[in-house]
Known about the structure:
single chain; mainly beta; CATH 2.40.50.100; CATH 2.40.50.140; 2 domains
Amino acid sequence: MASTLPALAIPGQRLGPVASFSAGPGTHVQHSNVYASIAGPVVVEPAQPGSKDKAILSVSRSIRAPATGNASKPVAAAASAKPAAPSSTPKRKLKYNTLPVVDSVVLARVTRVQKRQATVSILVVLDESGSTQGVNPSQTTSDNDNIEAILSSAANPENHSSSDELRFQALIRKEDVRAVEKDRVVMDEMFRVGDIVRGTVISLGDQSFYYLTTARNDLGVVMARSEAGNMMFPVSWKEMRDSVNGQAELRKVARPF
Length: 257
């Protein structure tokens, strides 16, 4: 069955019928067929033996096979796979990816706040392993890996320009700001223009916007300036304080690590 699948897929390419496969990441279902939503290697995750589940078709953003066992392998790699000798120096995984996917943790700058939603510009997409590790400048492999430079530049109001139009745009809806008392959320008290927010992608949305959530303790505003223009520090989950004059302002604050 896998031999009939393409090794590499392009967006919109038909991969297989839903009678034989389930749609995984990087794919979508249309007219009873699974189609590729992105370009990349086709990955098949076989169904468990004895299970009634169907094999899952996905399109990977990486040219390497996932390192989580042999459950899912790119079709091309599976056809020509050979036993590999153990290596004491495995390839280093990039800490920061380029494209957001569902469940990606991202850092974004707030560009507009409305009554029902906030618009943000995605600055960097964090990998789970990379978001909890320090950045070693000597191991930087792309501009997207240099998170200190990104945040330093983003926190400077002088750099808030039309460059945001070239970045991925996302929305944080009122109901996705926090997990409790959603009906009492006031967007102006959660975010301000220029705030740096840590959020998680919950939907790829449409061609214009991703959808983010901050409804976790570790998600929310991580960097912000006060109305006086000074950097602020968190004092609770809903308040930040000016580091110069001590003035408090409301925010949906991310729990510091």
